[in-house]
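Long-time lurker. I teach an intro course on protein structure, and each term I like to show students one example going from raw sequence to a predicted 3D structure in C-alpha cell notation. This year I'd like something fresh instead of my usual example. Would anyone be willing to generate the C-alpha cells for the chain below so I can use it in lecture? Attribution to the forum is fine with me.
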Amino acid sequence: QVQLVESGGGLVQVGGSLRLSCAASGRTFSRYAMGWFRQAPGKEREVVAAISWSGGVTYYADSVKGRFTISRDNAKNTVYLQMNSLKPEDTAVYYCALKQVYSGSYHPTTQYEYDFWGQGTQVTVSS
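-- Reply from a regular --
Happy to contribute to a lecture. Here you go:
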C-alpha cells in the first residue's frame, strides 16, 4: 500500500500564502503522477493541479492559474503546492493523490484516475 500524508494547511488571511506538502511512503512505483484536489463544504471534489512523473508537465484549474504552483522532489517522494494570493473561495480540504504511470509526461486530471489518496489538510482563507 501507499501512504500519502499532507501537511502545511492552516488559517491564512486573504492575499496570504501557504505551501502544502504531500509525502508518499510505503509501496513505491518506478513512476507515478501526483495531483492536488480540494473539496469545499457542500461541493464536489475538484482538481486543483497535477504534475507528471518527470515534473515537466503540469496542469492547473483555471481558478488557480497564476496563483498556485505544483512541484515535486522525486528523491524525497514529495509533491508541493505553493499557494499565493489566496482567496476566500480557496477555502477547502486539500487532498493529494497518486497514480502509477508508465509515461513520464502523463498527468491525470480527474479524481477517478487516481489510485491512492491522502487524508486531507484544511485550508481556511479569512477575509
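Some talking points for your students: Residues 2 and 27 are 5 Å apart (CA to CA). The two ends are 40 Å apart (CA to CA).
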